[in-house]
Amino acid sequence: MNQRVFSGMRPTGQLHLGHLAGALTNWIKLQDGYDCFYSIVDWHALMSDYADSSKIESNCREVLIDWLSSGLDPEKCVIFVQSHVPQHAELHLALSMVTPLGWLQRCPTYKEQIINIQNKDLSNYAFLGYPVLMAADILLYKAGIVPVGEDQSAHLEIAREMVRRFNGFFGEVLVEPQIMLTPTPKVPGTDGKKMSKSYGNSINLADSPEDVWNKLRTMVTDPAREKRTDPGDPEKCPVWDIHKVFNNSDSEKAEIAEGCRTAGIGCVDCKKKLKVHVERVMNPIREKRAYYEKNPDLLGDILREGAVKAGAVARKTMDEVVAALGFVRRG
Ligand code: ADP
């Protein structure tokens, strides 16, 4: 089986507990057994932030520090910035030739976001073509495995169709990737909706213990449990959903659920217990963050080395693609 893994994140802001549980924890596990390429996909960020690209650079730095602090290890995986490897743009162009517009127009994420995102003008070509660039990212590395959330599965299917179409025209050059769905439930944010940087409800990996507690303290709970003496229903409480992800003590979780149902414990008690588990997870992340913030030169070195390693694979694939297309060779 193809053991190459590719995944990426857009540098659009600080990462949060949802990214940690829903993506990074799995990425960190994979780096021990697979040949992993993880990319900070800045071209993808430009797609939505083109009117003001001023934050993309600092966001790349934030994402890199968040990744490294969480446990991605540049000795075990390749970490790089998408735009440092120009072949992403080149393969995107080649793939755009074999992508029928209907595939992109029918894509559920496109249809949904074009209606829901009101604060940005997304009537640009790149927004429609997002899955083409994403396919280029994956196919450039001939990745067999792409660990992403359910929300990305339609994009993966388009990438697979593109491979079949491209190979049908030009020969067996590209490799069909398989999706690896991360089996983590959605982490809710402080308002109970999915934790997301765009909803302003997130607990960020860079938050201080005080910030974390202030957010947890004011987080919504089971709305039917108005008074301390009212029994609650954990299954209707987003705080409980976070316990399920970060609390590693089954006996404590059983006590909390029982205490909630019988009004034996209050919501503040439950949140205090959750804080202990969130801090257990976040403290080592904070220690590593402090180390990288004190040694900023390391960040540049990691990205330079990552671009060299990723570039070597990307150039090889692109040479094969150009040869398959039958273009005149460089002398
Ligand atoms: P955001 O909604 O904050 O912009 P992204 O869409 O950039 O986050 O998320 C990238 C990936 O991180 C998702 O595909 C998913 O795997 C994971 N992820 C993000 N938010 C959550 C969450 N609240 N719960 C679980 N996983 C999440």
UniProtKB/TrEMBL annotation:
<keyword id="KW-0436">Ligase</keyword>
<dbReference type="GO" id="GO:0004830">
    <property type="term" value="F:tryptophan-tRNA ligase activity"/>
</dbReference>
<dbReference type="GO" id="GO:0006436">
    <property type="term" value="P:tryptophanyl-tRNA aminoacylation"/>
</dbReference>
<comment type="similarity">
    <text>Belongs to the class-I aminoacyl-tRNA synthetase family.</text>
</comment>
<dbReference type="InterPro" id="IPR050203">
    <property type="entry name" value="Trp-tRNA_synthetase"/>
</dbReference>
<dbReference type="Pfam" id="PF00579">
    <property type="entry name" value="tRNA-synt_1b"/>
</dbReference>
<keyword id="KW-0030">Aminoacyl-tRNA synthetase</keyword>
<keyword id="KW-0547">Nucleotide-binding</keyword>
<keyword id="KW-0648">Protein biosynthesis</keyword>
<dbReference type="InterPro" id="IPR001412">
    <property type="entry name" value="aa-tRNA-synth_I_CS"/>
</dbReference>
<keyword id="KW-0067">ATP-binding</keyword>
<dbReference type="GO" id="GO:0005829">
    <property type="term" value="C:cytosol"/>
</dbReference>
<dbReference type="InterPro" id="IPR002305">
    <property type="entry name" value="aa-tRNA-synth_Ic"/>
</dbReference>
<dbReference type="GO" id="GO:0005524">
    <property type="term" value="F:ATP binding"/>
</dbReference>
<dbReference type="InterPro" id="IPR002306">
    <property type="entry name" value="Trp-tRNA-ligase"/>
</dbReference>
<dbReference type="InterPro" id="IPR014729">
    <property type="entry name" value="Rossmann-like_a/b/a_fold"/>
</dbReference>
<protein>
    <recommendedName>
        <fullName>Tryptophan--tRNA ligase</fullName>
        <ecNumber>6.1.1.2</ecNumber>
    </recommendedName>
</protein>
